[in-house]
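Quick look at the format.
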Amino acid sequence: MSEQSTTEQALTGIDAKQPSLWPRLAPNVRIGFLAALAALALWMLAMGIDSQMGLFWAYGLAFGFVLQRSRFCFASAFRDIFLLQHGRTMKGLLAGLAVATLGFGLVMSKQVPNPTLGFLPPEANVLPIGLHLVVGGLIFGIGMVVAGGCVSGSVYRMGEGYVASWVSFGGILVGLLLTTYTWNWWWDASIADGWRIWLPTYFGHGGAIALTLLALLGVYLLVVWWESRSGMVIPETPFVGSGDDNFRARIGDNLRQFFVHGWPAVTGGVALGALNVLIFYTAHPWGFTGELSRWMLGLSNVLGVGPGELLGAASLPGCTLDVSESGFLNHMLFLVWGMVMGSFVAALFAGEFKIRRPRQHRRYTQAAGGGLLMGAGAALAMGCTIGAFFSAIPSLALNGWVFAVFLAIGAWIGTQIIQRID
């Protein structure tokens, strides 16, 4: 095969020597199509059970696809600031928060037209502020850096075949469950009397949105200043097309740019922010760990070792410990596994799926321990980097900013730890 044919096959997944289309596709592309068909079949099955389950399966596929294509991980956004002194992912994160803030603000202005009356939007992630949020943010920040990825990063790497990410996911489950046994103490000590501060109550919808966008702009300028101190700016890898100008070449270039070439972090952040607005408009903001806690609470209750009644958990929005008894099938179940499936499909089409085992056995311990800390932190903060941060700041809630500050401090501590153990 000539060098030109080899290059074409690598970029398009097509072997030009094969006579028909299906055999001409690279193996990963063929498996990708089969996985996409399986995802479609599961969507039809979910729609047959309940339309909301089918909708959330579709949302999960979209979130997972975007996460994998843009390699978007909240942990790397914070870790890279301290470890590599560049803010490429952080800039994407800020762009996503800005988009979500505008969309959330519009949705909440329809839900609560007059915020001065003291009513809170029913599904927005406006959560109590207190010591629990400080501790939760700190240990989650440490855990996500030690584990090598936050919840979103673990999810898309699970779809790519990273064994350590599956171990980290298991650690998150255990951490969530263990924290349920201390929940009532935290409820009495901090959560029950914590302030739930929704910015539109004090500044109106327009003022709260403007204040949040100004704060995001301030963080962006801080990131640019931080990069300028070190001179470390990592540009996005530019897409290089085939060089041909015919219709077939243009379509091929578009497909490669979408399915094969890595997306810029800003593109990923904006897409995630827009999806978060859509899912909030549909039902509630993007979340994750609430569903995981439902699994673990259900399992512990079946085994007869459940924590018992969790005070106040059912009265709070967001990714709080889910004490509902909705059975095995739940719309959030489809969202969680839809994210893994969406990442798997994206990784197959891009040729990036591969079973990857850690070369060092201590990496398993590191992944499990980091996951354990993330699970514990998410239970206390009533959400992970998705629910307590990416969905809380756009909810125009002060708790999102408090969590972000201590998440950043925890990430800095985690960076010091991995520099000493690696």
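Next, a different chain entirely:
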Amino acid sequence: MTVYVLKKISFNVYKVNVLKFTLMAECEEQTVFKIKFALMTDIQKLYLTYLKCNGVSTDTRQIIPGSMFFSLKGPRFNANAFAGEALQKGAAYAVVDDTAFATSDKFILVEDGLQSLQQLANYHRNKLKIPVIGLTGSNGKTTSKELLYAVLSRKFKTFATKGNLNNHIGVPLSVLSIGSSYDIAVIEMGANHVGEIAALTKIANPTHGFITNIGRAHIGMFGGFENIVRAKSELFQYLIEHDGQVFINSQNPILNNMAKRFKSPLLYPAMGDYYHADFISSDPYIKFRAENGDEVQTKLFGAYNFENIAAALCIGKFFGVDSNKANQAIVEYQPENMRSQVVKKSSNTIILDAYNANPSSMAAAIENLSAMKATKKVLILGDMFELEEEAEQEHRNIGELIRRKGFQSVFLVGSLFKSALIEIPNAKHFESKQLLMEELTKSPLMDSTILVKASRGIGLETIVGVL
């Protein structure tokens, strides 16, 4: 707990002084993630001002009229310099942490803008008397969140994280967007270092939670797979300490082993679990048999998404959503934002999964295409980032998988995928996306089922125009 003393100074600006006592989580490399919590009497003053506003903004390009603008610092910017602009564009107040920018009674001066945002979000969360479902995982977080939102919305007014606002800034912004009219909330949490999920749980205070899976995402930044397991399980640790309810995929060995830590975990999707469903097929869309016996045809590509569907239906069952309505929610769910989208174009079927990639999700997508019945299958893959010293081996591993599955038409983009050529020397490699597009324009693909997947920084979705 951090004690804040708000002192009223000139221009009705509130000065925040900090007496340090910090809650923190440390990773093995001694990276420290801090969240400081103010005494109620102090944060309450900021909260009362927040209640007069129409939300919270952190970007002057997207100012909500009447909102409270938080000036956040980054490695290449200092938003204090834009606080005045935020007010000019319609913000009601601007929170700054530099006295030089506090020039009127529309500014609120704090010790640290980011910490104040996190504190305000936690204070608001504690005012909400609703279930909050926290979720994290290496792959499938956003898809799982959207599926769960679709199911719960059949019974409740449901809030869910918008887009991928799942980090130390996005989570508090999400929490502060939960109005009093909501019955239940779903908060997505992401991380690339040990300690981050622990920090985010202290902001969102989840009452329920699940982990989609634990794979090799951001492995270079975590410093090894063991640290990924440790980091993702921080959500479970929070739920254990606060008597929360956990939902666990019994078919995932790592997660199923964690179930032993809980008094009453709710498992899915195997026979005998709390929620049972059977996978039928995925060619290209998933079909499954739900617990009530219905055969459900989805619009979702990829067998690996079955576990995300099952999680949503398991949690829906727990909260009393009618099974028929829950199944219908899954039927009507349409993936978008380059996540497992199927795009029909000319004579080609394009599996657009280019929002992001890591070794686990890349392998799963390749395995899924391999299992499909399509005659001509094509891989167009771009570099996977944030693997650090693991990058060369992980890209070579993908090459080895491609060789084992017998793919003949393979296009690789980026310097990292060069290492895969050791395993698949006949693959076509391009240093840049532009060179790939020139090749595909000159020699277009026809009558093919094409997987397009890469890390976000590649922007591989733009090649769809030439497919």
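Residues 1-41 have pLDDT under 50 and may be disordered.

See the schema section for token definitions.
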